[in-house]
Amino acid sequence: MSNQTPSGYLGSDGRISSGPAPELVAAGYGLELADAPLLHEGLLVADLAHVIGLHEAGILDDTVAAPLLAGLLAMGEVSVDDFPYDVVLGDAYNSREHELVRRIGVTAGYVHLGRTRREAGRIAFRLAVRDRIELLAAATAEFADALTARADELSDAVWADVTYLQLAQPSTFGHYLASFAEETARHLPRLRAAHEWVDTSPAGSGGVAGTRMSLDRGRLAELLGFTRVGRNTRDTMWTIDGLIDVMSAATQTVITADRLSEDLQIFASAGFGLVTVDASLCRASVLMPQKRNPYALSVIRAGASTMIGRLTGTVATARTPSAATDNWLHSYGEVASSLELATRLVKLATVVVSTLHVNRDALALSAGDPQTSSTDIADELVLQGGFDYRTAYRIVGRAVALTLSTGGALTMSALDSAAMEITGAALPTKAASINLDSLLDPAALVASRRESGGCAPDVVRAEIASLRDIVAAERAWFDERRRAEAAALSSLRERAEGLARSTT
Q1: What does the H/E/C string look like for 56-79?
Q2: Considering the entire predicted model, what is its pTM?
């Protein structure tokens, strides 16, 4: 039998006694250490809070806590770029432990008491994701602001709204943009719900079952700026359902920007000519001098596809045994970078909307097509002519088809002929009161749509005013949380510095 210790053999001290295989370093440890920039500050914060918690519980006295905190604070002065992270040691936590031992000796061992490295990592990750959700929420609120501003400006810009990219009904471009503003505003409560899951403290969880150290988990949460303590230590440490919610909320914010971009790319084409994307957001063709491609829209669309793929990947990793690292190994980097990507894309969409050149004349021309009045004429045949809607629908449809085939205008005579063909009788006498000219006036039709949520300009402006209040309230909630978190972490550092000086 070989005297060499095989890879993975547990020695007499209970530790793995051989170094990691280079393949494991490349595929596993390297992936974990790549998260060091993400976790660097949070790991320091987690360590400070844990040592303070042990001290306040009477487990560590001043003679141990002070040099331990002093060592951690000194180590915290080293930037992530200059820190001696070593991929052979595994994840970022292990490199930090190694450096702390080098600096202060065996006293560093107390930082493990009642806690696994995973607990510190989970804390650092939640802090990082919490921050990124707040940044995405701020960008989303700005996107809603841009949409409402342009919707207000264009609340009287009459156009023919489209469904399936076919002319539908007279409306306003402001009403169209307000629909995206409404959707964008709904993402803020989704991000808040995702934030609330992330804003749950795993501190004091131990491994899976808790710890015998009698740590005050509420106090640890307070030190770290978390609003709540996880109800079950195993759940708080290992579940990833909240990460799916985070990814879903982030992806939805981008999909709204994508759906608008999909439309704008078509509306900006020669076939529509309704809008022009600002030159600062375009890229010129190197071959065709006349081409100016709306590149920003492609960036948003490609980013949305990437977000969908990453969301799918996060969902797929949930299908693992519980309390295993499989579903966390990629999550740290993927979730955090996805939030950053979503923020960049939403900010880009904000600039697209703010700088978009809208061709009011082209909008008005699209609304001038008499076909877009068809629904209103059918409505009037019901109200004034006594027809049921299905019969009125068929009469108008036939009249429109006749005028398109002959190149003529839609007239009461054409409607009368269609009624004769469909019902066997001419329009009833009471239908003579129908004012076809007003029904063919898109501005008049738009002004008549005064129901809640309708496209009449003053109705759209009222909707926008109330939507601004909704967005402002959501923004205020996130701003307040951000202030509270910053204050808590500042107090944590002051507490650590005060204890570190207690024996000097």
Answers
A1: HCCCCCHHHHHHHHHHHHHHHCCC
A2: 0.91
Pair 266, 293 in one domain: yes
Total domains in the chain come to 3
Contact indicator for 37, 80 with CB cutoff of 8 Å:
yes
369: left (phi over 0), alpha (psi -120 to 50) or beta: beta
**Residue 62 falls inside a structural domain:** yes
Q: What is the C-alpha to C-alpha distance for residues 47 and 109, in angstroms, rounded to an integer?
A: 12
Q: Is residue 40 a contact partner of residue 89, using CB atoms and an 8 Å limit? A: no
Using the structure block, give the residue that is written with the tokens 């204050």: 487
Q: How far apart are CA 129 and CA 141, in angstroms?
A: 18
- Tell me, what amino acid is at 258? D
pLDDT confidence of residue 256 = 98
Q: Which domain holds residue 426?
A: 370-440
DSSP secondary structure of 133-183: HHHHHHHHHHHHHHHHHHHHHTTT-EEEEEETTEEEEEEEHHHHHHHHHHH
- Convert the pLDDT of each residue in 285-340 to its tens digit: 777 767 788 999 999 999 999 999 999 999 998 888 888 777 788 888 999 999 99
Contact 330, 317 (CB under 8 A): yes
| Residue 429 is assigned to a structural domain of this protein | yes
Query: Does the pLDDT of residue 72 top 80, yes or no?
Result: yes
Q: What is the rounded average pLDDT of the residues 90-101?
A: 92
- SS3 of 276, please? strand
Task: Give the position of tokens 């996130």.
Answer: 478
Residue 277 sits in the same domain as residue 401: no
373 pLDDT exceeds 80? Answer: yes
Which residue reads 């501190």 in tokens?
203
Residue 253, C-beta contacts closer than 8 angstroms, at least 6 positions apart: 136, 140, 143, 184, 187, 191, 342, 346
Q: What is the largest CA-CA distance in the chain?
A: 109
Contact 97, 116 (CB under 8 A): no
Using CA atoms, how far apart are residues 131 and 137, in angstroms rounded to an integer?
10
> Side chain identity at 144, as an amino acid letter?
A
Asked if residue 377 is part of any domain, the answer here is: yes
State whether residue 378 is helix, strand or coil.
Answer: helix
CATH code of the domain containing 267: 1.20.200.10
Phi/psi region, residue 326 (left: phi>0; alpha: psi -120 to 50; beta: rest), is alpha
Look at residues 146, 137, 136 and name the one whose alpha carbon lies nearest to residue 181: 146
Domain presence at residue 185: yes
Whether 14 has a pLDDT exceeding 60, the answer reads no
